[in-house]
């Protein structure tokens, strides 16, 4: 029915919506979804592979037994997943399903989109002649992931993490396909929701409004942290946007680069879907606060 | 959401991704290298939909694997593509983002332009050359730039390009002001031949200006983003 209505309305709706602002919102909204879907699907495939292939025994052998030690190991393991942040959420979910300590999986979730080679190379390209920016981004992002991991560890069972029910119990290839479909359907709606908000901010809030506070050190840092959260860019391209925010200090730009991959509106929506909103309400502010602090510290020291 | 509906939602999104990648319309949203990932993803989504669609009419329909209500939103991007067919970013966003700095130059200095004729430059490169050594490589040369028209206050207009890194959400505006020619309508693609005006755009934050010799309309290229 819906499809039929869409077919009939195609011409008329296109005229009614012939409004530049709305058209721009549509373009950016579709762009974010189109860009993220292959990465989300890749993440879902990887997470299904983890669910099916990686037994709890093997996982326990790879990951250090002591979780305090396992957290930094998970942070460094993030170097090996060259994808956008959308891929990391289902992967972290399936690692927890496989019995990995949530703190360790969440560390991986925070580190993977920020410290992988693709992101570091694009940062180097966006900031020519400033290799210290790459180093600072790597250091501050890893520090954020590990610090939040240890925080989760200290909260232990008091963290209201909802474990999603396992996908339908099947065996063999059927189980793999069912897991992929289940995970994709659970995560993608939240991705679309985040994309809608991010597109609205991108379209209706000109970035130059933030320039008015660029001169103030503290306000500048907080403003770019908030901007990183609401515009929800891919971690592979956010360095180019950061480089164009020339009015801001290098430390404020670093904050933008460290907060964005760790937490943004799209990720917050997906994490609320994956781990429950009671968890997201605690986790999101802690990640942002930690990212701002660690980026400011590293920026003050290196830049 | 019933199992059959889940299948329909997946198949619809998959089909739209394949269509975007196949017809080239994906270039309005993302960069060229995304074509194959989009085709593969679209086909995979359609394949994922096969089993739920085949199970239509089976008894266990209503208490099947439940999904959150927000999954309905998955229909929205596909519907928007299908019904609205959003255009490539153009003058509207370029004019709103006018105050932002263009991307930094990837090279420290530029080689001289090729001898003779009217070299065609990307708008971006023209801006970078103006910044390099007070525009020494541009001085006295006639060049051609291509882009769409965006307007400024008081009859001012620009040849404009949007430069994207990943997708349209991270678009940056690059533009050169055109003097001495009638202002075409917004979003019209033009090729402007002209001479760079000495001393314009040589410092970051200043606007480079081209004194036009000729302006001709061109077709909108397949890849509009830089």
UniProtKB/TrEMBL annotation, chain A:
GO terms for cellular component: plasma membrane. Keywords: Cell membrane, Membrane, Transmembrane, Transmembrane helix. It is found in: Cell membrane. The chain crosses the membrane at residues 30-55, 103-127, 133-153, 184-201, 213-233, 240-259, 279-302. Its main location: membrane. It is a multi-pass membrane protein. Belongs to the UPF0718 family. PANTHER family: UPF0718 PROTEIN YCGR. This is Permease.
TrEMBL record, chain B:
Residues 136-225 form the DUF1980 domain. It holds the Pfam family DUF1980_C. This is TIGR03943 family protein.
């Amino acid at each position: 029915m819906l499809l039929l209505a869409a077919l009939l309305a195609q011409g008329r709706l296109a005229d009614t919506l012939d409004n530049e602002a709305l058209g721009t919102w549509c373009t950016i909204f579709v762009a974010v979804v189109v860009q993220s879907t292959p990465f989300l699907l890749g993440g879902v495939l990887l997470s299904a592979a983890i669910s099916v292939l990686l037994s709890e025994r093997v996982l326990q052998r790879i990951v250090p037994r002591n979780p305090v030690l396992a957290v930094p190991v998970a942070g460094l393991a993030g170097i090996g997943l060259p994808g956008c942040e959308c891929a990391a959420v289902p992967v972290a979910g399936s690692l927890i399903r496989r019995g990995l300590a949530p703190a360790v999986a969440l560390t991986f979730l925070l580190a993977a989109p920020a410290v992988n080679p693709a992101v570091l190379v694009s940062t180097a390209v966006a900031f020519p002649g400033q290799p210290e920016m790459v180093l600072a981004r790597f250091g501050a992002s890893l520090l954020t992931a590990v610090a939040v991991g240890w925080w989760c560890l200290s909260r232990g069972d008091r963290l209201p993490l909802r474990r999603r029910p396992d996908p339908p119990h099947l065996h063999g290839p059927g189980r793999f396909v069912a897991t992929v479909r289940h995970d994709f359907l659970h995560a993608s709606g939240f991705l679309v929701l985040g994309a809608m908000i991010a597109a609205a901010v991108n379209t209706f809030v000109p970035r130059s409004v933030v320039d008015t506070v660029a001169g103030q050190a503290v306000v500048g840092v907080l403003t770019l942290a908030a901007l990183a959260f609401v515009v929800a860019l891919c971690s592979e391209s956010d360095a180019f946007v950061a480089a164009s925010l020339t009015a801001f200090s290098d430390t404020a730009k670093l904050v933008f680069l460290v907060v964005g991959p760790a937490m943004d509106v799209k990720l917050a929506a997906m994490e609320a879907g994956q781990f429950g909103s009671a968890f997201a309400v605690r986790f999101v502010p802690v990640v942002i606060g930690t990212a701002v602090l660690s980026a400011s510290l590293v920026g003050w020291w290196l830049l | 959401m019933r199992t059959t509906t889940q299948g329909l939602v997946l198949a619809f999104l998959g089909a739209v991704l394949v269509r975007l990648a196949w017809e080239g319309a994906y270039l309005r949203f993302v960069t060229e290298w995304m074509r194959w990932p989009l085709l593969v993803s679209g086909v995979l989504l359609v394949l994922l939909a096969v089993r739920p669609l085949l199970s239509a009419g089976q008894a266990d329909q209503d208490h099947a694997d439940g999904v959150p209500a927000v999954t309905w939103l998955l229909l929205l991007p596909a519907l928007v593509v299908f019904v609205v067919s959003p255009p490539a970013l153009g003058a509207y966003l370029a004019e709103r983002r006018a105050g932002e700095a263009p991307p930094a130059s990837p090279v420290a200095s530029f080689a001289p332009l090729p001898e003779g004729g009217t070299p065609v430059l990307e708008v971006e490169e023209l801006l970078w050359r103006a910044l390099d050594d007070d525009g020494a490589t541009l001085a006295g040369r006639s060049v051609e730039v291509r882009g769409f028209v965006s307007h400024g206050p008081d009859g001012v207009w620009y040849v404009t390009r949007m430069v994207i890194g990943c997708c349209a959400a991270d678009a940056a505006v690059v533009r050169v002001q055109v003097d001495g020619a009638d202002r075409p309508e917004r979003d019209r693609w033009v090729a402007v031949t002209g001479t760079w005006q000495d001393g314009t755009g040589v410092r970051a934050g200043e606007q480079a200006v081209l004194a036009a010799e000729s302006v001709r309309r061109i077709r909108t290229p397949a890849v509009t983003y830089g």
